[in-house]
Amino acid sequence: MHRLYLPPPLTAGRVELTPQAQRHVRALRLRAGDSLQVFDGSGGQWSARLCDGAQQVELLGFEPVERELERAVELAVGMPANERMDWLVEKAGELGAAGISPLVSARGVLRLQGERAERRCAHWRGVAIAACEQCGRNRLPEIRPVRSLKAWLQALPPAAGDARCLLAVPAHMGARTFAQWARALAPRQPVLALSGPEGGLDDEEVALALHAGFEPVSLGPRILRAETAPLALLAALAALPA
Ligand code: SAH
Question: Cα(188) to centroid of ligand 1, in Å?
Answer without folding.
Answer: 26
